[in-house]
Amino acid sequence: MAQIFGFWSDPPAYRAFMDCAHDRIAAAQTGTYDDLRVRVLEQRRGIAAGLPAGLDGSSLLRLAHCQVRERRRDHFIRAQVEVWNPGMAASRGMRGSIFAESAEADFLVLSAWNTAEDHQLYLDERFERLHAAAEADADLDAVTGDVVDLEPGWTVLG
After folding, report:
1. Does the domain formed by 41-150 have CATH 3.30.70.100?
2. Higher confidence at residue 94 or residue 48?
3. How far is the C-alpha of 127 from the C-alpha of 130, rounded, in Å?
């Protein structure tokens, strides 16, 4: 499985790419994949260095796709800003992260880590406390995600 993340400066830049270069690139990749899913999200907030800046020097990405109960949306956003973001930013080895929302009110937290060990230390030392303080169980219908080892030769910044 491959994960591809694109960061656009603004909606017109994304639209320009889709209107011009995308079809040429997509045509050249016909037959190179079996399944493709695309999500377009709006960044609500950067954490620490943010992304893509935080990718420089990172070896691991953690993504959490959060499906939030409709009546808990405002609480979830507030908890992200007041609990999760400062807790993650204070964690050793967390290079940068984004908090983004789709039109369907699904959320993505994408965080870049120096090493897998740094991410594991965050899980061991901070995650449960932050989870409880944020009242995450009350906010979430489901969380899916993945841990992605970054391949330096496949990481394009700029």
Report:
1. yes
2. 94
3. 5
